[in-house]
Fold this protein.
Amino acid sequence: MVVLEIKDLHVSIGDKEILKGVNLKTNPGEVHAIMGPNGSGKSTLAYTLLAHPKYQVTKGDILLDGESILELTADQRAKKGLFLAFQYPTEVSGVGFSHFLRTAYNSLSKAMDGDDREVFITVREFQKYLKENIAKVGLREEFLSRYLNEGFSGGEKKRAEVLQMAVLKPKVSILDEPDSGLDIDAVQSVAQAISKVSTKDATVIIITHYARILNFLDKLDYVHVFAEGKVLQTGDASLAQKLEAEGYEWALEKTA
Ligand code: ADP
Ligand code: MG
C-alpha cells in the first residue's frame, strides 16, 4: 500500500520555471485524472516524478508513504513501485519485447519493497505469465516475439505500455496521454486495458488533454484541473465533462 504525496512542487528546466507549486495526494486503489491544456507542464510533472535529469526540483517534495524520494534515481524509484507510461513510446530495434519485460521484471523483483510477487525461475514460466497478461490488454501473443514497439501502431504501443504495467505491478502508475494520437476505437481499447490491469491496491494517474478516454474507464475517482504549472481544482468525474464542454478558460479565469 503506497501513498503518493506531491507537496508544493516547483520544477525548472534551465532557468525557466515550469511547475509552480503542485499539490496532489493519492491513495491505493484510486484512479486519478490530471487534465490540462498543452504546454501546461503535465509531462514535466510525469518526468519529474520519475527523476528525469533534465528537470530540477527547486522547491517542495515528493513523498512515497511519507518518505521523500527526491534523492532517489529513476531505477530506485521504480523499485519503490513507481511506473511511467510514456506519451511517445520509443521503438527499440534488436530488443525483443518479452526479453525486455523479463529483464525489467527480474530487476524489480529483487528489490521492490514489500514485494509479494512470484519469482519466475525459467523463461517458460515467465512466458506463461506474459500470455495471461497480454490477453488483458488485447494484444496478440505474437507481439511478444517482436522487437520492442517496432512497427507497432499508435494504439498497440500504448497497450504495450499498459502491458508493462500489468506485468511489473507498480504501486503507482503514471500514464502520460495514453490517448494522444489515437482514433476513438483505439482510445477505447487503451482505456479498457487500463481498467483491466488496475487493482485495488495500486494507484493509477492518467494524464490527458481530453475527457474522451476517461469516459471508457470502469472507475474514475478524482479529476484534477492542471494549468500553468499547478493543480487549480480537484473534483469528481463530472469535472472532466465540464472541462470537455467548456474548455479550460473558466478554470484559468477563476484563479487569475
Ligand atoms: P504538457 O505535457 O502539458 O504539454 P510540458 O511539460 O511538455 O507540457 O511542457 C511545459 C512547458 O515546458 C512548455 O512551455 C514547454 O515548452 C516547456 N519545455 C518542455 N521541455 C522543455 C525543454 N527541454 N526546454 C525548455 N522548455 C521546455
Ligand atoms: Mg505532455
